[in-house]
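In the design runs reported in the main text, the only information available to the sequence generator was the tokenized backbone. The following block is the verbatim input for one such run; it is reproduced so that readers can re-run the procedure and compare outputs position by position.
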């Protein structure tokens, strides 16, 4: 789904979502690596990189590997997710320059020891009620010449052809429509929610930064899917069925049930046409030196 997170209501249990978030970020690693390579063209030898809304720390640790001279701080409101981040940093041998901050964004960033050379916010901003105010707060945490990299937007993932031979064609497009309704409710119910036109470069400029570039990055894992990709698709659709199923029509719920039945030849565990195709967009802006 375009926004990656969904629930039967709009109160997300991040600890419960941790395994899916981790599996997704691991699978999407090639996409993140390409985004970091793009950032590295303009960001040389950063001293401090902050991952604002880090989740389980997969991307935070990728930053530590991509920029071996940098200290990395993973900031998130969920301590269980940060526990996973610290464990990952230890496993990957970067714990000596990796730390975490637990607390709600953007206020928790006040605890930073010094300004960031890179502040990365991947699909975390849209969970904050006043996105404009949050971007302004992020901007104050940048060192002169520092870069804010905002991953928002892109395209919803696709796992299956439009016509899968069971149910009505276009299942994922209809799931997208339900997800968009959920996303609008989630945004409206956030504390201090403010509706914003999602012109991210304009919002970055309003925060006092100079927009530097926008680029989308593709994850293309074609059919036949690997076991890991297939397991992720099954986990993602299971989450969809549990969280959004009641909002889908009965035929689509029945189709999802078949897709998730490991013994059904038409299910995603066995069918040969399962793939993963995703596009995420990154917007960058720089604080004046």
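Verbatim output:
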């Amino acid at each position: 789904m375009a926004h990656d997170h969904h629930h039967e209501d709009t109160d997300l249990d991040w600890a419960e979502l941790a395994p899916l978030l981790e599996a997704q970020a691991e699978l999407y690693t090639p996409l993140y690596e390409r985004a970091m390579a793009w950032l590295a063209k303009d960001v040389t030898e950063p001293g401090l990189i902050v991952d604002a809304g880090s989740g389980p720390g997969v991307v935070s640790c990728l930053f530590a590997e991509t920029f071996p001279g940098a200290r990395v701080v993973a900031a998130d409101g969920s301590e269980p997710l940060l526990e996973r981040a610290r464990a990952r940093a230890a496993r990957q041998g970067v714990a000596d320059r990796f730390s975490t901050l637990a607390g709600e964004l953007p206020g928790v960033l006040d605890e930073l020891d010094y300004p960031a050379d890179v502040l990365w916010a991947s699909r975390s901003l849209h969970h904050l009620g006043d996105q404009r105010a949050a971007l302004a707060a992020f901007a104050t945490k940048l060192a002169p010449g520092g870069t804010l990299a905002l991953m928002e937007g892109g395209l919803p993932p696709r796992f299956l052809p439009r016509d899968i031979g069971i149910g009505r064609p276009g299942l994922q497009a209809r799931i997208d429509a339900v997800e968009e309704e959920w996303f609008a409710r989630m945004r409206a119910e956030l504390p201090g929610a403010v509706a914003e036109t999602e012109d991210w470069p304009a919002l970055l400029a309003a925060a006092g930064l100079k927009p530097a570039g926008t680029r989308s990055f593709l994850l293309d894992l074609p059919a036949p899917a690997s076991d890991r990709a297939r397991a992720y698709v099954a986990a993602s659709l299971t989450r969809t069925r549990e969280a959004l199923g009641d909002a889908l029509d009965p035929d689509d719920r029945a189709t999802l049930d078949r897709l998730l039945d490991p013994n059904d030849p038409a299910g995603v565990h066995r069918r040969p046409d399962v793939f993963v195709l995703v596009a995420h967009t990154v917007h960058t802006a720089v604080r004046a030196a």
